[in-house]
Write a structure and sequence with these properties.
The protein is an alpha/beta fold. The protein folds into 2 domains: about 5-80 and about 160-275, 3-Layer(aba) Sandwich (Rossmann fold); about 90-160, no CATH class. The chain has 9 helices and 9 strands. The strands form 2 sheets. The protein has a 6-stranded mixed β-sheet, sandwiched between helices. A 3-stranded antiparallel β-sheet has the order 2-1-4, covered by helices on one side. α6 links the parallel β6 (about 160-165) and β7 (about 195-200). α3 crosses α4 and α4 crosses α5 (about 145-155). The chain is globular and about 55 Å long.
Length: about 280
């Protein structure tokens, strides 16, 4: 069996002085080239999981491995790159989009070798569709353009794993759609492993066709197979875990309106369609 890209083995983490652990008994395996979406509420342990994966924290119990190595080793070797939540640049910040992408390529490379690795910058910008504004000031870019620059910066270093932390904060609907297309392109054109973390199901839905599995994290981890993407059935499974914390054991059944054969729901479907039809464009 191939060594997994990411492996959590019965990991529990408790912050000093905290009563309950932030993560409890989390086991996770992500294979090379796989794309996994991790969704959960704020405070559910998502950031803690990313910090453990990056080697910034160590488990209280259990073990974390990245391609068979400790996370700190993987980070120093440049195997992990992350795309942060939106960064803000001053309009007069003296750097172009290409300059920012180049920071990723040269971050872990000795200065005398940096020039030889700059060819990865152009490849990353072409892949993410930001070559067309490579020379523009980064502070003048739209949020969607800046996001593509940050993704290109992560890819320019040639990582094995790319982490997306709440990537669609402040991105409009067209930008979310483009992000989904970009995610699908990365998945199809490379063997980079993708882990996307968000509290917002719309973020997960934007790249729905990319994921083979979706995980729900609220201190403990639950997996949902999603071979057809983020379907109503998968959403129902995800919501069951959230609702169970409030109401106890519940069962949620979800399907598209077109597949519904319950006559008692007919008025409800028409009502919702009517509500949306009159919305602002």
């Amino acid at each position: 069996m191939d060594t997994p890209a990411i492996e959590f083995d019965s990991v529990t983490f408790r912050y000093p002085g905290a009563g309950a652990p932030a993560l409890e008994g989390v086991s996770l395996r992500v294979d090379r080239g796989e794309s996994l979406a991790l969704v959960g509420p704020n405070g559910g342990g998502k950031s803690t999981l990313l910090w453990l994966l990056a080697g910034m924290l160590r488990p209280t119990q259990g073990r974390v491995r990245v391609f068979g190595e400790a996370p700190g080793v993987a980070r120093r070797r440049g195997w992990i790159a992350s795309v942060p939540q939106q960064l803000e640049f001053e309009p007069r910040f003296p750097a172009s989009a290409r300059d920012v992408v180049a920071m990723g390529a040269s971050a872990r490379v000795p200065g005398w070798r940096a020039g030889a690795d700059m060819r990865g910058v152009d490849d990353a910008m072409e892949t993410t569709g930001c070559a067309e504004f490579a020379g523009e000031a980064v502070g003048a870019l739209s949020r969607g353009q800046l996001q593509r620059v940050l993704i290109a910066r992560a890819l320019a270093a040639g990582p094995r794993i790319v982490l997306f932390d709440e990537p669609l904060v402040g991105i409009d609907a067209p930008g979310q759609e483009r992000f989904g297309e970009l995610l699908a392109s990365l998945h199809d054109r490379s063997d980079v492993t993708i882990l996307l973390v968000s509290h917002d199901l719309r973020t997960v839905a934007s790249g729905a066709s990319t994921y083979g599995r979706i995980a729900c994290l609220r201190r403990t981890l639950h997996f949902h197979d999603a071979p057809r993407g983020l379907t109503p059935g998968v959403l129902a499974e995800v919501f069951e875990h959230d609702l169970a914390g409030v109401f106890g054991d519940v069962h949620v059944d979800a399907h598209s309106a077109a597949e519904c054969d319950d006559p008692s729901h007919a008025g409800r479907h028409a009502h919702h369609h009517g509500d949306h039809a009159g919305g602002d464009s």
